[in-house]
Amino acid sequence: MDTVLHYSDQFVFDTLYAKIWPSHTAVSNATGAIISSWPRDDFWRINLSVFAITCIFGWVLYLLTASLSYYLVFDHDYMKHPKFLKNQIKMEIECAVSAIPWMTLLTLPLFTGEVLGKSMLYGGVPKTLYDWLYLVMSVPSFLFFTDCGIYWFHRWMHHPKVYKFLHKLHHKWVIPTPFASHAFNPFDGFIQSLPYHIYAYMVPMHKYLYLSMFVFVNFWTVMIHDGEFISHSTIINTSAHHFIHHVYFNYNYGQYFTLWDILGNSHRQPNEEQYDKAIRDDHKVMARQAHEASEIEGSLAKTKTL
Ligand SMILES: [Zn+2]
Ligand SMILES: [Zn+2]
After folding, report:
1. Which of 126-140, 215-229, 269-283 has the highest mean pLDDT?
2. Residue ranges of domains in the chain
């Protein structure tokens, strides 16, 4: 993030802040251009710039990835499902686009801390074989740690006393589309992103790898909502597993793997109803799924979670 901020300062913010606050300008020694006199290392400038970068990057990444997934991957026959809401895509996009700035604001102290060198992120080119091995092993280590964290935070948010305050909004989409991927209550999105930041503050990780993993995580979040069930894996938490989470509620809380669901006794393997397109598009199958989902919603209402 510090590298992104450096180039954003150079090409955008120095000039932009000079235009927004024309009374606070200076002349660049290097180029002779008019730039902001607000110091780049000022704490509040860093916060404002990091907020703008993260929010705009979040919007672009979400809209681009979800649109590509929606048009190229998503099974549009799912829009005939009785549980697919009227105007659902518009509602999902509105929900996600309005949540991203609030999620960014909640996460801002952690992002800023990473820019200011308070985390365990490191830079530089790996020199020894050990450095390279550590870099490569950071990937499974990061995935394992964050998968565990997300599983337990997600499962906690399904607790009857917590659910309606934090996580209910994401389950409005019983038949999710890729646009549901970031359609959360902002506090829900923030809590589910905490394992990534906890890792960065606890375990040394190369900053470029961390940035790459952050982008990957956003891709993955879209992919598990894409409704196209290519993989029959029992190890990877695929979009078929996450589809089951949305319809049947108390299963498959994981993010990348099924490990914690298997250990936590919440794993439910998808079957031909998800994998076989002829069966999954059958209106009788959809009607039964809708009935079962409504029964679950009814039983949750009785426990006053809805
Ligand atoms: Zn959930
Ligand atoms: Zn979801």
Report:
1. 126-140
2. 1-40, 42-302
